[in-house]
Design a protein that fits this description.
This protein has 114 residues and is an alpha/beta fold. The chain has one domain: Rossmann fold. Strands 3-2-1-4-5 form a five-stranded parallel beta sheet. Strand 1, helix 1 and strand 2 form a beta-alpha-beta unit. The termini are far apart.
């Protein structure tokens, strides 16, 4: 069985990218369910699918991404965390990001911001 690597970006994908500070209790996107759905998707892909490996990365650095993963209790669902710039180059099958020009995976899914 081939393993599928799925990457999630932090800012604009897991977290709000609309100026709400990360230390605010409301820094998940204010629209109901959008970020919670991403978190649930990470949990489902990790726990319910046999051949998936979930990674999280951020242009804000590995330490920042690790802090967000810990803050939302995602450690048991996430295989590894990376700085986007220092990603070791393993093939990523699917990546979720909010940047239109993003192209770090075979299949890039751009998160709708509006």
């Amino acid at each position: 069985m081939r393993e599928i690597t799925i990457a999630f970006d932090i800012d604009g994908t897991i977290l709000n990218n609309q100026g709400i500070p990360p230390d605010s209790p409301h820094h998940l996107r204010p629209r109901v369910g959008v970020n919670l759905e991403v978190i649930i998707l990470i949990q489902i892909l990790s726990k319910k699918m046999k051949n998936t490996k979930v990674i999280v990365w951020s242009g804000g650095g590995k330490e920042y991404a690790e802090r967000i993963v810990r803050e939302y209790g995602l450690e048991k669902y996430v295989h590894a965390v990376y700085d986007k710039a220092d990603y070791p180059g393993e093939e990523v099958d699917i990546a979720f990001d909010d940047i239109q020009s993003f192209d770090m995976a075979k299949n890039n899914i751009i998160v709708r911001m509006k």
